[in-house]
Amino acid sequence: MNNYYDLLCSIEEKLPNLSKGQKRIANFLLEHYDKAVYLTASRLGEIAGVSESTVVRFAIEMGFDGYPKFQRALEDHVKNKLTASQRMRVSSDRIIKNNKHILKSVLESDLEKIHSTMNNVDERDFDAVVDALLSGKKIYVLGGRSSAALSVFLTFYLNLMLDNVINVTSSTVTEVFEQIYRIDKGDVFIGISFPRYSQRTIKAMEYAGSKMAKTIAITDSGVSPLLQFADLSLIARSDMVSFVDSLVAPLSLINALLVAVSVKKQNELVNTLDNLERLWNEYQVYTSHSSGKYI
Q1: Angstrom distances, CA of residue 270 to CA of 160, 254, 257, 282
Q2: Does the structural domain 7-117 have CATH classification 1.10.10.10?
Q3: Residue pLDDT, tens place only, 50-82
Q4: What is the pTM for the complete model shown?
């Protein structure tokens, strides 16, 4: 299916030509997609009054290799379409059905997202991103909304290794473009966004691409709107926990990027860190347990 094609619109279009059993599935999904996203094929079939094999055939009819890929696409749709209050209700229902303590449920979900990211991220794209960071004239990093925390983290550590990194703040649309309007060929733009995707980040990436800068997307899936403007992309699974975005896997991916850059810049970085250490000591940036002072 096209990455930017609305899944529910596809179901509606194909509805008249489906079998009787598949129509039951389609109608349930159209009315209760927020509840269906976490149902197994057997459970969805049970609710719709059809067999598990009918559910699998329905997923194939929708253009997917099987039910797991269909379910993943449905999850992507839900994450981007639901309001904050709807997201909270959906995730709360899921946690309750797991019948586990919230702490364990959330941590297990984060572990699964890291594992999925590790198994599916393209190592060649990862290496290409590292090379782009090392060769870029200037590096602009933008993460809107909750992704701003990832942008600040990435920029903070890149600034210790490189002297050409700019964290683009996104308080207003005009501020974003005022900060990147000089971007040009040879520069690198990194856009970080996860559902619900930031329109500001998407537009900024589109502009960067129009100026011939190398564009890199750090996002959650193949249906992310950032990908249409990205030269390179790194996919890290995210999750919705209540109305809070779980960005553990993206942060782990960013950690890997930073480590890879540090390995490439090891000789220069040793001198930089030694100089910084002297400054930190001189200006008491960190606590000193031996002196009993806490700054």
Answers
A1: 11, 21, 18, 19
A2: yes
A3: 999 999 999 999 989 899 889 888 877 766 666
A4: 0.71
